[in-house]
Amino acid sequence: MAAIRSICRHVLRTTSAPSLVTRRSTLAYSSAALRRDWTAKDAGAGGFKVCVCGGAGGIGQPMSMLMAMNESVSELSVQDVTMAMVPPGGVAADLGHLEFPSKVKGYAIDPSKPAVDQLEACLTGCNLVLIPAGVPRKPGMTRDDLFNINANIARGLVEACAQFCPDAIIGVIVNPVNSVVPAMIEIYKKKGLDPMKICGVTTLDVVRANKFVADATGKSPQDINIPVVGGHAGTTILPLFSQDPIGATLTPEQVAVLDPRTQDGGTEVVEAKAGKGSATLSMAYSGARFGSAVLKGLAGTPTTECTYVQSSVTDLPYFSSKVTFGKNGVEKVHEVGPMNAHESERFKQACTQLKSEIDKGLEYAAAI
Ligand code: NAD
Ligand code: LMR
Asked: What is the pLDDT of residue 8?
């Protein structure tokens, strides 16, 4: 019984839905109860098709698992390359035995050939495509160092989405998000497609800020929701602690520790993994939290997450702030909101770095 309890607690902590967390106290510790709890998670309209590109990778596998366990998902495509560490068909076969309604299929492509020629069945009908496909950094590297290789991988996949599922929301996880997302959105614009379909996934920064504030204050992370705005690299990651009731209780000394720790959360994991990759499990959790928000919105329950999109809330053309997802995807991009003196100063630094990283993405797209 103790072992089952421990597994239940673990799974509950690795899910995305706040509603699930609030149900924790009523959970009966049996596998049947656990299954019922998951089934209730995104109750409401469902039948969504989701694709995870890079689905056999470090993020892709656990994130595919969490999406396969989402009650709103009727079909999940696990897409990767033919020489992936694990064949995507194998990941799909494995996930296909979970006791959830989703049908899971694997798709392997030859990366020496255009993705668009190989992904019709994989992408057709998709409502949501999550893209962690690409290379992670090693100690000593910046996310920006990954741009050339990862922008080309993302381009192939985004062009295939443009062809086969142009109405799907695309969650770009692959780094550097600050440059890859503007590049991909410009490609969509050149094709006459809706730029608001492409979002940079910055949820992990919110998740980290929530956890760090919880640890510092002794409060539950479930009661904390720190908006993290700007972008997803270094100083562009701007946690607005003052906008959350618990975050607002931090002393300036605590903020002086937690602000840089939130900015450097990725590097903390890269160094701890010592050359064997970057954040995968916390990212899978965060990607599934983002995916759950999108699907809830599409199902008719407006749901808000911070995400990096084409934006007019600052002077920059791309910016991460709270975004509400509704039946058609992005419904509202929210203002950054009130900032204290420290945050206003940091906002200026964030915008300076972000501008040059946006420009890099725009130059890439202009050269196509
Ligand atoms: P990984 O190497 O473990 O997995 C990447 C997967 O992508 C591999 O399975 C690889 O075969 C696959 N791939 C490569 N080319 C492909 C293509 N053309 N089509 C489909 N799949 C392809 O790496 P990971 O740890 O999963 O990280 C992936 C990316 O996510 C990295 O760029 C990393 O920096 C980024 N990341 C972003 C965040 C964020 O907060 N946005 C967080 C963590 C990691
Ligand atoms: C993260 O924030 O963990 C990711 O962007 C991966 C990285 O390279 O830090």
From this structure: 34
Atom of ligand 1 nearest to the CA of 280: 25
Catalytic residue among 97, 232, 334, 342: 232
Ligand having the closest approach to the CA of 307: 1
Compute, in angstroms, the gap from residue 279 CA to the centroid of ligand 2.
Answer: 6
Record: fold of 44-201: Rossmann fold (3.40.50)
Given a cut of 90, is residue 29 above it in pLDDT? no
Q: Looking at the CA of 160, which ligand is closest? A: 1
Q: Is the pLDDT of residue 133 over 80?
A: yes
SS in 3 state form for the chain?
CHHHHHHHHHHHHCCCCHHHHHCHHHCCCCHHHHHHHHHHHCCCCCCEEEEEECCCCCCHHHHHHHHHCCCCEEEEEEEEECCCCCCHHHHHHHHCCCCCCCEEEEEEECCCCCHHHCCHHHHCCCCEEEECCCCCCCCCCCHHHHHHHHHHHHHHHHHHHHHHCCCCEEEECCCCHHHHHHHHHHHHHHCCCCHHHEEECCHHHHHHHHHHHHHHHCCCHHHCCCCEEECCCHHHEEECHHHCCCHHHCCHHHHHHHHHHHHCHHHHHHHHCCCCCCCCHHHHHHHHHHHHHHHHHHCCCCEEEEEEEECCCCCCCEEEEEEEEECCEEEEECCCCCCCHHHHHHHHHHHHHHHHHHHHHHHHHHCC
pLDDT at 31 over 90: no
Domain ranges of the chain: 44-201, 203-288+301-366
Active site residue 232: yes
Ligand with minimal distance to 208 CA: 2
CATH architecture of the domain covering 203-288+301-366: Alpha-Beta Complex (3.90)
Q: What is the pTM for the complete model shown?
A: 0.91
Pocket lining: 146 vs ligand 1, CB cutoff 6 Å: yes
* Ligand 2 pocket: which of 175, 202, 267 to mutate (most atoms within 8 A of CB): 175
Atom of ligand 2 lying closest to residue 141 CA:
8
Tell me: the pLDDT tens digits for 271-314?
Answer: 999 999 999 999 999 999 999 999 999 999 999 999 999 999 99
Average pLDDT, the chain: 90
Return the best residue to mutate from 52, 53, 59, 289 for the ligand 1 pocket (most ligand atoms within 8 A of CB): 59
